[in-house]
Amino acid sequence: MDIKRVAINAVTETIVMTVVHMDYKGQVAKRINEKMPLATVKGFRKGAVPKDLVEKQYGKAIKQEEVQKVVDLALERFVQSERLNLLGTPLAKVNEDFDWSAEELVFEYEIGLVPNFELDLEAKNDIVKYVVSADDKMIEGQLERIQKQFGTAIPQEVVAADSDVTGTFTNEEKGINNATTIAADLFKDKATFDLFIGKKAGDVVTVNTKGLFEDDHQLMDVMKVSHDDVHGLEVEVNFTIEAINTAELAELNQELFDKLFGAGTVSSLEELKAKIKEDAETQFAQQADQKLLGDVTEFLIESTKFDLPSEFLKKWLQTVGEKKLSPEEAEVEYARSEKGLRFQLIEGRAMAQSDIKITFEDLKTFTTKNIRQQMAQFGQTNPTDEEVQGIVARVLSNQDEVKRLSDQVVADKLLELFKEKANPTTKEVTYDEFIAASYGE
Question: Among the four residues 118, 122, 160, 374, which has the most C-beta atoms within 10 Å?
Answer without folding.
Answer: 160
